[in-house]
Design a protein that fits this description.
197 residues, alpha+beta, OB fold (Dihydrolipoamide Acetyltransferase, E2P), Helicase, Ruva Protein, domain 3, 5 strands, 21% strand
Length: 197
C-alpha cells in the first residue's frame, strides 16, 4: 500500500520514529541503523512495509531499499515476525547480515539479542539461496574487465550485493573497484563496495 513516506522527523523513540506528513504524525517502527539516519527536524524518506493483522496495524520503515529487501526476506521465514526481523536488523546491518547468512555464520547471527541457534540455522537454511541469487539463475563472471581473475570471495560478494537490490552489472563494477582498493575477503569486498557506492 505504501512504498515510502517522506516528511519531517518530529520524534525518535526506542525502536520508533514519528514522521510528520501534512500535519499527521506517522509512527514507524525501525531498526537501530535506520534510527541513526533520522534526525529530529530534518526531512527523511523511509521505505515502508505496512503490516495488517486482526488486532493490529503497524508501519515499519527503512532508510534504504536494501534494508527493506532484507526485512522482507526475514519475515518470509517461518517463525520470524516483523518485530523479530527489526531486532535482527538492529543487530547486524543488512549487508553484514546477508554475508552471515550466505557464509552460514551461526555465531555472528546468535550474537544478535534474542536470536537463538535454531532460528539462526533456519534463516541460513531458508534464505541462503535467496541471498545468493535472489531470483537469478547464476552469478556470472565479471564482465567489466575480463583480465581481473574472479575469486570465490568476489563471486560471493557479487551474489550478496545482487540479493540486496543491486543489478548484476552494478554489483560487478562495485566489487571490481573494491578489489582494486585492496579488499580480499567477501565481507571486506561488500563493506567497501557500499562505501564506494
Amino acid at each position: 500500500m505504501f512504498n515510502y513516506l517522506s516528511g519531517e522527523i518530529v520524534q525518535l523513540d526506542n525502536g520508533k520514529v514519528v514522521v510528520d506528513i501534512g500535519g499527521i504524525g506517522y509512527e514507524v517502527f525501525a531498526s537501530s541503523y535506520t534510527l541513526a539516519e533520522c534526525k529530529i527536524g530534518c526531512n527523511q524518506r523511509l521505505f515502508t512495509y505496512l503490516q495488517v493483522r486482526e488486532d493490529d496495524i503497524s508501519l515499519y520503515g527503512f532508510a534504504t531499499m536494501q534494508e527493506k529487501n532484507m526485512f522482507l526476506h526475514l519475515i518470509s521465514v517461518s517463525g520470524v515476525g516483523a518485530k523479530v526481523a527489526i531486532a535482527i536488523l538492529s543487530g547486524l546491518d543488512s549487508n553484514s547480515l546477508a554475508n552471515a547468512i550466505f557464509t552460514g555464520d551461526t555465531k555472528a547471527l546468535t550474537r544478535i539479542k534474542g536470536l537463538g541457534k535454531k532460528t539462526a540455522e533456519r534463516l541460513i537454511l531458508e534464505l541462503k539461496e535467496k541471498v545468493v541469487v535472489d531470483g537469478q539463475t547464476a552469478v556470472t563472471p565479471l564482465t567489466t574487465n575480463p583480465d581481473i581473475p574472479l575469486t570465490k570471495a568476489m563471486s560471493d560478494a557479487i551474489a550478496v550485493l545482487c540479493s540486496l537490490g543491486k543489478s548484476q552489472m552494478e554489483a560487478e563494477k562495485l566489487v571490481e573497484a573494491a578489489s582494486k582498493l585492496g579488499a580480499n575477503t567477501t565481507e571486506e569486498l561488500i563493506n567497501l563496495a557500499f562505501r564506494i557506492n
